[in-house]
Write a structure and sequence with these properties.
single chain, two-stranded antiparallel sheet, alpha/beta, 10 strands, globular, 10 helices
């Protein structure tokens, strides 16, 4: 148990930790039913950031929010947010928890990369995807931000600042918007989790993380060049309202990944749509689940003939 964790214990249950071979991953399950909805956070975010979405969705089916290695209540892993570690951790944890496909994946911000990679590697497990304000990551080259997938490994590493030059931000002392929309007890939890995250952050793992992202974005970009590369996989894309024209166009183009997709601007919301407009995220999850809930169409003998 982490120092000071006594103030957080109301949310935690012994069954929420799974051993991944010497380190533990924290998963928080609610609800019953199939498919299981998996909620994937962005960089620097935690499972409790889904607290306004998970209870509503769990009235309909089983839902799992979780903390990636090094986040929240999960132990650090050998790597920091590499796509392979995240995907392997999630698949192993779900299996050990007794979960079985099918899954609906919901990814916010950088969680969109992990969701998309998991679906790319396990197409037979995923029956729907919701992307919540997710973007292609960029890196600075000659003073200009360029997409990671356009770089070689050598170009990326040459343009990354050395880990020794990176400074941790000041530890937060209060909850800032939009996290003040969480219930008061979870606001206290989140403040502690954010402080703990920055205290334990290891920038030496950053070059490997960025190379992992570059490699994954390159693979996924090639796959996306094919129209409807996700076939008819139900896909909803939510984009914050205050987005610039370039990012807006990028988000719109993501809808071309599937022949069964929808793109929506989250009016009156910033980056954390799950906190500022949880109703839109809940509706999107329900929407991608709808095709699985429809009864098979009965065809009469006359129609067959």
């Amino acid at each position: 148990m982490y120092p000071g964790q006594h103030c957080l214990i109301s949310r935690l249950r012994p069954e929420d930790w799974l051993d991944l071979g010497g380190r533990k991953l924290h998963l928080y399950y609610t609800g019953k039913g199939r498919p299981t909805v998996i909620l994937e956070t962005g960089a620097g975010s935690f499972s409790i950031d889904w607290a306004l979405v998970q209870p509503e969705v769990s009235q309909r089916t089983r839902v799992c929010s979780y903390d990636r290695a090094g986040y929240g209540w999960s132990d650090p892993g050998p790597e920091w947010d590499s796509v392979t570690q995240v995907a392997n951790d999630l698949e192993t944890a779900l299996s050990k928890a007794g979960e079985h496909p099918l899954y609906v994946l919901v990814g916010q911000s950088m969680g969109g990369l992990f969701v998309r990679w998991y679906q790319h590697e396990h197409r037979d497990q995923v029956v729907g995807v919701v992307r919540v304000d997710t973007y292609e990551t960029t890196a600075p080259v000659n003073g200009k931000q360029v997409p990671l997938y356009t770089l070689t490994k050598e170009q990326l590493q040459a343009n990354l600042p050395p880990p020794s030059s990176l400074k941790k931000p000041p530890l937060p002392t209060e909850v800032h918007p939009p996290f003040d929309k969480l219930p008061p007890n979870l606001q206290r939890n989140r403040l502690w989790l954010e402080r703990h995250f920055f205290e334990t952050l290891d920038f030496n793992k950053e070059p490997e993380m960025m190379e992992s992202w570059r490699s994954a974005f390159s693979v996924l970009h090639q796959a996306s060049l094919k129209q409807d590369s996700l076939d008819a996989l139900p896909l909803v894309i939510l984009t914050r309202e205050d987005v610039n024209d370039d990012d807006r166009q990028q988000q719109k183009e993501l809808s071309h990944l599937s022949s069964r997709s929808r793109w929506e601007i989250a009016v009156r919301s910033g980056h954390f749509v799950q906190l500022e407009r949880p109703d839109l995220v809940i509706a999107a999850v329900n929407e991608v689940m709808r095709p699985m809930e429809r009864p098979p169409k009965v065809v009469s003998l006359e129609q067959r003939q």
